[in-house]
Design brief:
single chain, about 70 residues, mainly alpha
């Protein structure tokens, strides 16, 4: 017991460490609010990227078909 007893004693920073979870919770709430706030703009940009990628794939597919017919 004596070997680990010093590790079990509460230090003078207990008050600070007791507030860590509250700080973490508040930060998490703040970041969640930021994510929710930016979601519509990000969703719109991602949909635009998806459309651009789909158009590029269609264009590549058509070019491949033309090349396959010619060769």
């Amino acid at each position: 017991m004596e070997g680990v007893q010093h590790k079990l004693k509460l230090g003078k920073n207990v008050g600070e460490s007791g507030k860590e979870w509250r700080t973490h919770l508040e930060q998490t709430k703040k970041y969640a609010g930021q994510v929710v706030g930016s979601l519509p703009e990000v969703r719109m940009k991602l949909e635009r990227l998806q459309d651009d990628a789909a158009r590029a794939l269609d264009k590549i597919s058509r070019k491949e078909q033309i090349l396959s017919r010619n060769f």
